[in-house]
Amino acid sequence: QVQLVESGGGLVQAGGSLRLSCAASGIIFSINAMGWYRQAPGKQREMVARITFGGSTNYADSVKGRFTISRDGAKNTVYLQMNSLKPEDTAVYYCNRYPTPYPYWGQGTQVTVSS
Q1: Is 37 in contact with 50 (CB distance < 8 Å)?
Q2: Cα–Cα distance measured from residue 79 to residue 92, given in angstroms and rounded to the nearest whole number
Q3: If you count DSSP H runs as helices and E runs as strands, how many of each does the chain have, helices first?
Q4: Is pLDDT above 80 for 81?
Q5: Which single residue of 7, 22, 112, 114 could bond 78 by disulfide (Cβ 3.0 to 4.6 Å)?
Q6: Which residues pair with 46 in a beta bridge?
Q7: Is residue 53 predicted with pLDDT exceeding 90?
């Protein structure tokens, strides 16, 4: 049974930083590419960062240079370090497999950036 548990969100001022974590279980973590996705109110869910099992990373243009994705295979955990946050980064953040997400999505973690 796939379980994805996101944490680390919160309220931060513009220019601040947050580090999100995603603990995964029930999947073969070591061979799956994983991604961080976000969904803002009234908008579709979008991928913001992804990392392959080999450690290659890719980012959406909107977060490039500000966000860093990483993974710890021993802990089955994926991280998203978010720096220089902007109000437009406000969203619920989720992790899931990339490019084909599992049907199950975790509860996500809310990130709110005030101006």
Answers
A1: no
A2: 15
A3: 0, 10
A4: yes
A5: 22
A6: 38
A7: no
